[in-house]
Amino acid sequence: MEDEHAAHNYGPLPVVLAEGKNARVTDVAGKTYIDALAGYSALNFGHGNEELIAAAKEQLDKMTLTSRAFHSDRLGPFTRDLAALTGKDMVLPMNTGAEAVETALKIARKWGADVKGVENGKQHIIVMDGNFHGRTTTIISFSTDEEARAGFGPYAPGFSVVEYGNAQAVREAITPDTVAVLLEPIQGEGGVVIPPEGYLAEVREITRENNVLMICDEIQSGLGRTGTTLASQYEGVEADMYTLGKALGGGIVPVSAVVANEDVMGVITKGTHGSTFGGNPLACAVGHQVVKMLATGEHQKAAAERGKQLAEGLEALVGKGLVAVRTRGLWAGLDIDPELMTGREACEKLMENGVLAKDTHGSTIRLAPPLTATAEDIDAIVEAVRKALGADA
Ligand SMILES: Cc1ncc(COP(=O)(O)O)c(C=O)c1O
What we know:
Elements: E1 17-21, E2 24-27, E3 32-35, H1 38-41, H2 50-62, H3 75-86, E4 90-94, H4 97-116, E5 124-128, H5 137-141, H6 146-149, E6 159-162, H7 167-173, E7 178-183, H8 199-209, E8 213-217, E9 241-244, E10 256-260, H9 262-265, H10 281-295, H11 298-315, E11 322-327, E12 332-336, H12 343-352, E13 355-356, E14 358-360, E15 364-367, H13 375-389
Parallel strand pairs: 3-13, 5-6, 5-7, 7-8, 8-9
Antiparallel strand pairs: 1-2, 2-3, 4-10, 9-10, 11-12, 12-15, 14-15
Helix pairs in contact: 2-10, 3-10, 11-13, 12-13
C-alpha cells in the first residue's frame, strides 16, 4: 500500500480503490467489488450518483464558500426543505457527524440552563451502553468502548450511561438536572443493534413526562437506510432533536445538521455557536439535492424492498455459519459463528468473493450497501456471504 505516511488510525482491508459507480467499485488492478459498506452509509445513493454529481458540478462553477458572515442563496432553500423532510422548524448545518452530535449536546445543555432552569454546570445527559457518536474528546468520554476511550482522558463530566434497550433504566437515571437523553434508534457501529419493540416510544414518554429532551442520533440510521426517512419513525416517535450526517453529503462532501423546533433551537443565538464551513453553498447544494431525492420516498421504498431480499437471503444462512442476523431496511448485522472465523477474517473472505464489508466488535459484520443497489447486487452479496462461510448452496 502507498499510504505509509497516513496515521495508523484505521486497519483497512488490503484493497486500493480507484473508481466507483453506484454499488460497484474497482481497484487499481481492475478487479470489481460490490461496496456493501457504502462509506458507513455516507453513500446511500451510490458512487457517482448522477443527480448529486450534477448538483455539485453546477454549484462548483458558481460559488463554493461564503462563510456564514454573509448570506448565500443556497442556505435558505436547503434548510427549509430539510426542516420539512424531518418535520421540524429549524436546521443548524455543520460538517461531520461528530460536530452535529457536539452541537446537539451544546443545544441541550443551553436549553437546560436557559429554559429548564438547571444551574449552569449541572446539566446532565443520559447516553447508552454500546453507543457510537463520534470521536471528539467529549463524545469519547461517554463511550463504553475502551479502545475508543483509553488514554484520552481527562473525560468530560455530565453524562450517565445506561443499558441500551431498557427504558426503565432511563427512568431511573433521570435527576432534576437531566436535560437530555441521547440515543441511536438502531446502534450502527454497535453491530446494527435493534432495541426491543416499544423502547423508543417508551423513552419518548419518559422524557416528555420529565421535561427532558430526546435526541435521536440518526447520522447512520437516518436518510432512508432503514426504509423510512428516519429510523425512529418506525415506532412513530418524534424526537426533540435529530442529528443527521453521512448520506446528507451525498458521498461528495461532509454535510451534517441538527434539526429541532424553535422552542429548542431558539437557545442558539448570534455568536453562541458556529463553523467556518457549516452550511457552505456547495454543501447546501448537495444536501438540498439529497433532500429532494428523499422527498419522493423512492429511496426509502427501495431500502425496504432490497432489504427484504437481503434479509431473506441472510436468514437462510443462520445455523450455517451465522449465529444471528439483524436487519432493518437495507441494513444488516451478521453475527458470525466465532468458532468458524473472526469478523475480520470473514471480511477478507468476502473480499475474495467480490464484496467489501466491515467487521465491528469481534465476530459481527455490518452490511449497508447503497440504497440504489440492484437486485443482482443483493443476490451477489448473499452469495458471497454464503461462500465466505463455506455454507452449502
Ligand atoms: C450514529 C453516529 N453518530 C455519529 C457518527 C460520527 O460521524 P463522523 O464520523 O462523520 O464524525 C457516526 C459515525 O459512524 C455514527 O454512526
